[in-house]
Amino acid sequence: MTDVSFAERLNEKLSAIDSIVWGPYLLIPLLLGTGLFLTIRLAGIQFRYLGVALRHGLIDRDDEGGEGDISQYQALTTALAATVGVGNIVGVATAIGVGGPGALFWMWVTGLVGMASKYSEAFLGVRFRTRDSRGNINGGPQYYLAAGLPGGFGKFLAWFFTIAAIIASFGIGNLTQANAVSTGLEDTFNIEPWISGVVMFVFVGAVLLGGVHAIGRVTSAFVPLMIIIYLVGGFVVLGMHVTEIPAALGLIFGDAFTGTAAVGGFLGSAIIIALQMGVARGIFSNESGMGSAAIAAAAAKTTHPVRQGLVSMTQTFIDTLIVVSMTGLVIVTTGAWKEGKDAAGTMTSTAFSQGIGSQWGGTIVSVSIVFFAFSTILGWSYYGERNAERALGSWASLPYRMIFTCVVFVGATTELELAWTFADLANGLMALPNLIGLILLSGLVVRETKAYLKFDPTLRARPDDIQQFMVETKNPWRS
């Protein structure tokens, strides 16, 4: 009884702080405003170069002649592994269960403008990356905020991000993911949470021993497969409810600006709640503006920051405009959203079950959660480790991996509500310094982006030509 009351009190306090950080006067306008600001300054780069970026990242895959620890494709799948997680299933359900169907619209908006933010932070991650004493490449907001912004302010933002990222790695990248796995396996297969925790402990520990190279190999192998399996299941459900799709889209767009009336187990929602939940769960899912993907982008073998920035930008498109959209449309078209926030943990499973039967529907969702969450744990272990090394030195790498692996077991038995609140708050604190930095460094991003894309608009330039371009433009960056 004491433990329950303590957890409830802690959740109330964290929720109070979280409501301020994610309130209408702080992170929401900053997040959307920064994405819109960068979209305008970069002349809608996410719309003009999406096709080129998808080809370069998914078909070309390797940037010949570039230096780095992992391939461009592995950097993309590592970042996708960290973002395509429980937020794409439970997070979307929570957003719609609390904010109504209109929350999905604001998730789309967050994704569309967030692509410009994702491009910018990945560009900066590569632009200011460095090598450590062991020869490994390091980069991300913890480096480009300090190197790109003069004086103590940049260093303060860098340290703020570093600490928040370490904390966030145990929230968004560990507790919520492990919790979702254990809950899904218990509901579908009656597997005890402690058993799930032990299995995840063993597998996560085994992969982390190999470092970023092992993470890159594992994620590049199964991330595309797990996304395809989930999308195929979703298309089957939508195909069986095709007549409801127009009404569902009307509900999504209409409720985004009018709020949602109470119906079934859904208690109703005002516009501001739909907006808040959509943006909060949107950034939880695609992480645009958080700066996390810049850490993976910095490790990529690339010949120019613009090239990797465009590849990283496709991550948000795949995560939000494809995977999140599938989850949201399935939930709304089947009517599962009417069950309300209390059913968020099983809402997606219910929606799939209504489309393709309880056995197959529940199994697809449960298996997807397992793979999505496991991949997210791997991706975020790398993010947290890099920040731990930045804060404490290279010696912190092994202790961090050991602690992170142990927390996986703890997360398997943590209450979902407390874990989500903790993750939301950590995400917000992590995004704040990065968003400020993106605005202040936008001039550099725009100037060098325009110059490079004028020289190589199709991303087909040879390494020697790129090096010559860098010399002629007196750009200090070298691959």
TrEMBL record:
It holds the Pfam family Na_Ala_symp. It is found in: Cell membrane. It is a multi-pass membrane protein. It comes from the Bacteria. The chain crosses the membrane at residues 20-40, 79-99, 105-126, 156-174, 194-215, 222-242, 248-275, 317-337, 357-380, 392-413, 425-446. InterPro entries: Na/Ala_symport. Keywords: Cell membrane, Membrane, Symport, Transmembrane, Transmembrane helix, Transport. Belongs to the alanine or glycine:cation symporter (AGCS) (TC 2.A.25) family. This is Sodium:alanine symporter family protein.
